[in-house]
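Title: Comparing notes on inverse folding

I've been comparing how different people in this forum approach sequence design from structure. To keep things fair, I'm posting one structure and asking everyone to reply with a full sequence. Here's the target:
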């Protein structure tokens, strides 16, 4: 679903205050809202108003929303979005009130963070199998399992999945009245695309496609047209698996789950859950053992960084010790959230949102091979390796800082529309000494200087220290920084300047 810059409900919804549009699709819009009687945040799903003028479309959309609320009322599951209420808006338009989930869809998570580790993937996929096992136990098939219908939520030690959009769900074998909305071709099982009845194995096929997509950060089936995707799905060619990352047992499990012949496909989500739990336990046990390159550790938390910084002295950090003499470039970034006066957001939700944005920043920097050294409040310190070309590495670090500044501006506009919150970033780049040449004391002094320069940077500014300036001059656009630092700094400082390409 894509966001639209509006805050108001399209129709009157009694008892709720609109706080902004979260997204919209063909069947309707989802708004963030506050329940006036309790003050809690909720998500309100309202069918698209143009559809009410077409009786057939109106009936289909209403039926889909009714089906979704019927299924949600039946389920009580930690990994399924919770139904709170259902009502009738002005003009007789029905709406559903759902649990508000402060996260992002799996589609957006993969777009922002790239490939997931095997451990993170297993954690999420076990949770989704648990949902499917519960659904299938009740005789229900979801029929539209895909990354857009799974929320990824930060919950401390691991990623937490929430499944939503049960509008296409049906009891196994029942006649489907919702024609024209039969799921998403890239995730539909072959029998669905042929118009046959959906069965539990159909959900498992879509689940397995998402499993592979988490490891590759790209869909298994892609094409310029829908017909190309359908042709790939219906062909006898098996799905390509990243076997080097999976190992023998997981490869076998996914092959059974992705068999294109439904009669030969794994169909019991509870049995697959047990198998995957065994793999997950083995992986967690083995991840600290030497000589297991395929067992990559998961993201420690959605916001659990290597080691917190202290102001003075700053102790030598594990990531620095691991990289040794290669660490020479420091990038310090600060991200802050500012709610508008009428945002209606409580402190705990603001804190959750802050951690999400900082984790997003961390993931983006790590994708560029930056190493997280630690945090100090809203400030994050990253280190970059010095390879064969010092100037080239400094230039890459500077380009990343500019890219982050641009991306934060875009995210700030989205957050402003959705939640009434402004996001700002500032930072500094500094040339750090080699540890072997200057010892821990020299390194700590460099960290303190980077933190000091970062504190002087106004919103949107990335300050360049004199030592970093000597590495960047001539390769990156810079200008003298004339913010609050002129009267305080004995040396001339510069700031990065975004070019039209950034």
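Reply #1:
Here's my take.
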């Amino acid at each position: 679903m894509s966001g639209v810059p509006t805050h108001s409900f399209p129709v009157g919804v009694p008892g709720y205050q609109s706080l902004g549009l979260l997204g919209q699709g063909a069947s309707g819009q989802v708004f963030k809202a506050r329940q006036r009687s309790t003050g809690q945040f909720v998500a309100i799903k309202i069918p698209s108003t143009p559809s009410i003028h077409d009786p057939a479309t109106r009936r289909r959309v209403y039926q889909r929303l009714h089906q979704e609320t019927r299924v949600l009322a039946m389920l009580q599951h930690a990994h399924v979005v919770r139904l709170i209420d259902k009502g009738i808006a002005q003009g007789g338009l029905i709406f559903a009130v759902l649990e508000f989930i402060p996260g992002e869809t799996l589609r957006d998570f993969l777009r922002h963070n790239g490939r997931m580790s095997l451990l993170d993937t297993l954690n999420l996929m076990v949770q989704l199998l648990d949902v499917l096992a519960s659904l299938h136990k009740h005789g229900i098939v979801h029929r539209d399992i895909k990354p857009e219908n799974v929320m990824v939520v930060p919950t401390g030690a691991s990623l937490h999945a929430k499944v939503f959009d049960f509008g296409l769900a049906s009891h196994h074998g029942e006649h489907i009245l919702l024609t024209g909305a039969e799921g998403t071709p890239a995730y539909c099982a072959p029998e669905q695309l042929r118009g046959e009845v959906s069965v539990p194995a159909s959900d498992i096929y879509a689940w397995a496609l998402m499993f592979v997509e988490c490891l590759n950060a790209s869909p298994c089936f892609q094409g310029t047209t829908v017909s190309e995707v359908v042709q790939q799905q219906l062909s006898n060619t098996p799905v390509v698996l990243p076997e080097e990352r999976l190992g023998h047992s997981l490869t076998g499990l996914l092959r059974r789950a992705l068999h294109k012949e439904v009669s030969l496909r794994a169909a019991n989500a509870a049995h697959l859950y047990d198998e995957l739990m065994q793999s997950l336990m083995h992986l967690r046990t083995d991840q600290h053992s030497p000589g297991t390159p395929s067992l990559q550790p998961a993201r420690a938390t959605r916001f659990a960084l290597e080691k917190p910084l202290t102001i003075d002295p700053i102790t030598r950090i594990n990531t620095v010790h691991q990289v040794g003499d290669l660490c020479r470039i420091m990038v310090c970034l600060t991200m802050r959230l500012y709610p508008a006066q009428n945002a209606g957001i409580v402190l705990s939700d603001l804190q959750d949102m802050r951690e999400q944005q900082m984790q997003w920043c961390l993931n983006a920097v790590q994708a560029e091979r930056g190493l997280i050294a630690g945090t100090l409040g809203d400030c994050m310190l990253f280190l970059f390796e010095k390879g064969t070309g010092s100037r080239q590495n400094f230039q890459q670090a500077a380009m990343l800082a500019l890219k982050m500044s641009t991306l934060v501006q875009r995210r700030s506009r989205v957050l402003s529309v959705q939640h009434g919150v402004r996001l700002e970033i500032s930072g500094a780049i500094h040339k750090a000494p080699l540890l072997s040449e200057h010892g821990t004391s020299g390194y700590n002094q460099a960290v303190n200087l980077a933190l000091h320069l970062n504190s002087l940077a106004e919103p949107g500014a990335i300050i360049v220290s004199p030592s970093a300036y000597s590495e960047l001059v001539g390769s990156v656009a810079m200008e003298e920084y004339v913010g609050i630092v002129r009267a305080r700094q004995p040396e001339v400082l510069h700031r990065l300047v975004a070019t039209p390409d950034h």
